Amino acid sequence: MWPGALLTLLLCSSLEAQENSFTINSINMVILPSHEVQNGNNLTLQCNVDISTTSHVRLQHWVLFYKDDVLFHNVSSTEMTESYIIPQARVYDSGTYKCTVILNNKVKTTPEYEVLVRGVPSPRVVLDKKEVIEGGVVMINCSVPEEKGPVHFAIAKVNLETKDTKLKRKKSSPNQNSVTLEFTVEEQERLIYFQCQASILSMRDMETSEVTKSDMVTVREFFSSPKLYVYPEGPILEGTPMHINCTIQVAHVAVAFPEIIIQRDKMIVAHSREGSRATYSEIATVEHNGNYTCKVETSQISKVSSIVVNVTELFSKPKLETSATRLDQGDTLHLWCTTSGASADNFTIQKGDVIVSQTNSFLKRASQEDSGTYTCVAGIGKVFKKSNAVRITVCEMLSKPRIFYNSKTEVIKGRTIKVNCQSINGTLPISYHLLKATDILESRIVGSNTPAVFEDNPTEDAAYQCKASNCHSNSEMTSELLLVKVIAPVAEVKLLILNNKMVESGTEIVLRCFVNKVSGPIMYKFYREKEVNPIHEVSSNDTQAFWYMEEAGVEQGGQYYCTASNRANLLPNIPKSNILTVKVFLAPWKKGLIAVAVIGVIIALLVLGARCYFRKKAKAKQMPVEMSRPAVPLLTSNNEKVLSDSGPEASRPYGYNDDIGNHATKPINENKEPLTLDVEYTEVEVNSLEPHEGLGRKGTETVYSEIRKVNPENGRLT
């Protein structure tokens, strides 16, 4: 509604202002009676405006009031002063105020003014009851109706008789101006009242009200304080029946009885949850001396009273004595029991719950079964007293301890073995000491007949011995000597060559594979690099092994290694040696022999090549001569012509072949064995006047003729 009215006024004032000129000179706020006002007094906010205009009438304008930047009041006015009254200012009215004037499109606002409201109204206290039973609950409502939350309340319970504040509690109400709390009434409170005080935060300060008292509350007892009675009255002699009673009085409105507890010192000796009495009855002894307390309790209330009871001793507590608490088996066990004062007429000596003697003395030859705790009970009439406890230990001598170890196989160097020591017979506990050589390795106390187990990691052959002792007076018992053989596994292998790594062929190669001191037998294996199977293997108890090659050849050169293992080495953890490179070179005389052979071969090849070369050259010269020579008939010694067959071959030179023109020489008889011909060349003078085929030259010429001889063995021409 306010925005609509404000809009209407603005429209009207805008129309009027179009005809007149105006200005807002100033605006201020006056707070009455002052910036600080007491709670409950009236507070006036005046907004003064000074406006100048050319109009003859006062202009309509809006005046707006703000608290903490929130608009809470506005008014349309033609007056220069507008007021807003806050009746009975409260703390929640504290804050910062300002006012704003709006005329047409001009707006002006005052500075902010801080207003503080001091004080808080006294709170109101309302109780749900004015009479209550001990342990009951009272509901208290504390409020400040004039104020708004948050309000902080502090409520206290006060004892009227002592003026002591028994309990004080605080509670805040963030959205309301009241709180309700419960208070429990405790025992011995008779008249009580409650006080309430309210606090509210005003700006930066906390404003606190006066303290308001509630009505008086009367407290009635739920039950009276307990009373203790001891019968008989006066001195009480041991053996006299004794009764201790605790009684209370309970209010008629009670729906249940409280619990009654009787304690001697801190031990509960009697209690009751029904009725108003609890009773403790006993035959009096000096153990019943002490401070007796009666407690009466509910969930909220507890009342206590006490009394001291003294009982006169008839005779002293018996004392059990012995000649010795530790005995060897077969020694004399002697126990006796004594008292002071009146003489006891009844004695029993017990071992645990078993009576071993009905007199004040016990004597026997000790055995291990006599170990235990003994007590004595002495009595006169109905009074019986128990003595102190005596612990007797009868020691049976230990049997000779046996010593053994758990390994079913050989002991590997560095691995753990468990050595057992055990005495079958003897009183427990048994103290065992394990000796290695002459030194105590470890000690252990065992409370049963099971073996004492010791652990060790031997690195070499060892001798163990066990000593056992118990409470017996004899010296400790010693076991036999336990010898443990330790197998040292092969850890490192090395390979050496006894001569130089550069080996002359024909000499020997000696490889040495060796290890440190380990247990045998040791398996040695020699390998050539990149070969799976060993070239030599041998088993030996020695820490070294050799491989011999008497006459080494070049093929024995290469890389070698070896392995060594014993029973302690498990596959695949077989140690491998270093790799040794061996080079085999030829002996000088072999090198010379090879050089001579090579030179001989080269010379032979050169000779053969030269021979072939000269033969080829000779044949090359012979072939043109034969091709150019005419066919001359052979003459006998009488210069007669040798007739030949009339075939075509008769006119060809001897040995002529059709392939000669192609410069290919072919055997005369290619299917038969070649003829062995001895050819002789003779000079024949031919007369140029004689007509011969194929001769076109004149004059005398020298002609070479082939003369073939007849082989006398086969009749062929040669």
Structure description:
This protein has 718 residues and is mainly beta. The strands form 15 sheets. Strands 11, 13, 14, 16, 17, 18 and 19 form a seven-stranded mixed β-sheet that branches. Strands 2, 4, 5, 7, 8 and 9 form a six-stranded mixed β-sheet that branches. Strands 30, 32, 33, 35, 36 and 37 form a six-stranded mixed β-sheet that branches. β4 (61-67) and β5 (70-77) form a beta hairpin. The chain is flat. Residues 5-15, 631-710 and 712-718 have low confidence and may be disordered.
Give a brief rundown of this model.
This protein is 8% helix and 46% strand.
Topology overview:
Blueprint lengths: L1 H16 L4 E11 L3 E3 L4 E11 L7 E7 L2 E8 L3 E6 L8 E9 L2 E4 L3 E6 L5 E4 L3 E3 L3 E7 L7 E9 L5 E9 L4 E7 L6 E12 L2 E4 L3 E2 L3 E4 L6 E5 L4 E2 L3 E7 L11 E6 L2 E6 L4 E7 L6 E8 L4 E8 L1 E2 L6 E4 L3 E3 L3 E7 L7 E6 L2 E4 L3 E5 L6 E9 L2 E4 L3 E6 L6 E4 L5 E2 L4 E6 L7 E7 L2 E8 L5 E5 L5 E8 L7 E2 L3 E3 L1 E2 L5 E5 L4 E3 L4 E7 L6 E7 L7 E5 L3 E6 L8 E8 L14 E6 L2 H41 L51 E7 L14 E7 L11
Parallel strand pairs: 2-9, 11-19, 21-28, 30-37, 39-47, 49-55
Antiparallel strand pairs: 1-3, 3-6, 4-5, 4-7, 7-8, 7-9, 10-12, 12-15, 13-14, 13-16, 16-17, 16-18, 16-19, 20-22, 22-25, 23-24, 23-26, 26-27, 29-31, 31-34, 32-33, 32-35, 35-36, 35-37, 38-40, 40-43, 41-42, 41-44, 44-45, 44-46, 48-50, 50-53, 51-52, 51-54, 54-55, 56-57
